[in-house]
Design brief:
The protein is α/β, with parallel strands linked by helices and about 250 residues long. The protein has a domain of about 70 residues. It contains nine helices and twelve strands. Strand 9 and strand 10 form a beta hairpin. Helix 3 runs parallel beside helix 5. The longest helix has 16 residues. The protein is globular and about 50 Å long.
Length: about 250
């Protein structure tokens, strides 16, 4: 998946400005940046849910706008920040929604395996008969992640998947992202926690005011100078066992 000089204007205001990047199979790309930097809009462009105002977005050489919705759903799965469902579906039914793109195809035979695997990996197997509307925020987040995993696509786009989760389940999400990449999938994950981004990502894309400030390995991008400048707060970047820790300097 390639974005070439992508710009997005909303209500007369540039939200993305000249963003060029490649999403690669077999790696985790973490997208970071302060509030309002354009991270969720970037993910919406990558998913095909928002057309760029300028520039182009393509998957396997075909513009995203050229894919029918069903065909696109078989190529990429999206976890948004909003996990709300107004109807009280049972968790099992929510996961089954992830398999809907494969109805009337030979891959429908994989449904039972895909659902069981997704429920296990997201730690929601014990919730399958519960109503989604009765779950805690963290449980809903994990069920929504399981739906994305059940969709079983080569591109996985995750917007703040750790936001409502406790420490253990945050680590589970990082492990899942790494496993998906090891399986040859392209994973894009929007994160606010820079230390999590440093731990999970092969590459990090740093956005600020809609522009791509830097892209590269965590060590290349998450420097004290760059983070301090973009976020407007002085930080120290520590390294422990090869993992970066971004710590604000509190005075």
């Amino acid at each position: 998946m390639i974005l070439d000089a992508v710009g997005v204007i909303r209500d007369g205001r540039p939200v993305l400005d000249g963003v060029t990047l490649e999403v690669r199979a077999g790696e985790v790309l973490a997208v970071v940046g302060p509030n309002g930097a354009g991270k969720s809009t970037l993910l919406a462009v990558l998913s095909g849910e928002r057309a760029p105002t300028t520039g182009s977005a393509a998957l396997d050489g075909t513009p995203l706008a050229g894919y029918a919705p069903l065909e696109l759903a078989r190529r990429r799965a999206v976890l948004t920040q909003d996990n709300a469902l107004s109807f009280p579906f049972r968790v099992r039914q929510v996961l089954e929604m992830g398999r809907s793109p494969w109805a009337r195809t030979a891959r429908i035979e994989d449904d039972d395996r895909a659902l069981a695997d997704a429920a296990s990996r997201a730690d929601v197997a014990h919730l399958l008969d519960r109503r989604f509307t009765e779950l805690s925020g963290g449980e809903r987040a994990r069920v929504s992640l399981a739906r994305v995993l059940a969709q079983d696509t080569p591109v996985v786009l995750l917007d703040e998947p750790t936001a409502a989760l406790d420490l253990r389940h945050q680590e589970d999400v990082l492990a899942i992202a790494r496993e998906l990449a090891a399986d040859g999938r392209a994973v894009v994950i929007v994160l606010h926690d820079l230390s999590l981004a440093g731990a999970v990502a092969d590459r990090v894309a740093l956005l600020a005011a809609g522009r791509l400030e830097a892209i590269g390995t965590p060590k290349q991008v998450l420097t004290a100078e760059a983070v301090s400048r973009v976020y407007g707060v002085e930080v120290e970047v520590l390294e422990r066992d090869g993992t970066l820790l971004v710590v604000p300097l509190r005075r």
